[in-house]
# Entry
Amino acid sequence: MSTVRPQRPAGSPAPSLASTPAPTGSLIPLDRRIATACGYFDAGQHSHLLEAPPGLLADTREAARSRQNLDFARLSACYSRTAQVLTKIGRYDQSRLSADRATIYAELSGSPLAAAAARELSIVLRHQNQPAVAQRHILDVVTRVEKTGLRTPAQASAYAQMLCTTSYTAARAGDRDQALTMIRDATRAARGLPHHPPQGRLFPLTPADVDLYAVGVHWALGDAGAALEAGRSLHAGQFTTPERKARMHTDLARAWQWGKPERTAAELLSALRASPGEVRDRPAIRTIVTDLRTRHAQAAGVRELAVSVGTRAA
# Structure
């Protein structure tokens, strides 16, 4: 039997979610601090990211006392990013609270961030085993984004992103028809999107990102062959951040998991090289490593992977 030693990222924003900490008095502009936090996420540096929210949320909440739209938008963005990383590392109760607050402040801001916050909420609902609720929630978001008329590239990108999320949510709920319809619609919607989105775009989706979603959709539907076919043309150079590069490898590893332990291990080792946190900090991916260590200990790459991630024989 094989076990996984607990190896979760250090730090937790729980105190800042349960109560309002005192502002830090930092002289560093909030926008710069938010950008730094986003950089930690893009690099898969979850420990650093989890150390930021208490002070950052305290200061953005203090700024939001102005009741200005921009300050509400900043606060929503901070809560959305907090929800993202908490979901990634499996802290779903805290993530749900963060996503709820992100949604509230986004609606107060009147900005497009409302779609981002609502998307995060649907994702955590899915992880909390509420797929039907998550599906209804994200479908409402799709309708709202579609009503913008999709007149700008940013709106088109948001629409394609929501279709991808809806497709994956439907796949996890077992709704095959909806999942396949939505991922086809997302592929069409993404055809005109740039391969290198402009910096600062709220949903920097690319055609390659949609193909990666298709890998996940087919995997969730139980079709490993279709998942691998969807990812056949994907390569790390199509993705700009370590987090996205590693996510490509972990998604492909899940598809290879059915009958190809060497390929699974190879993909996870590539993910480790791109962003170690994407393998070490995500419970679902650590479970794959544990399974490889238990069932395929002699397969190429498995021992190296297990040592790197921190699994051991019981």
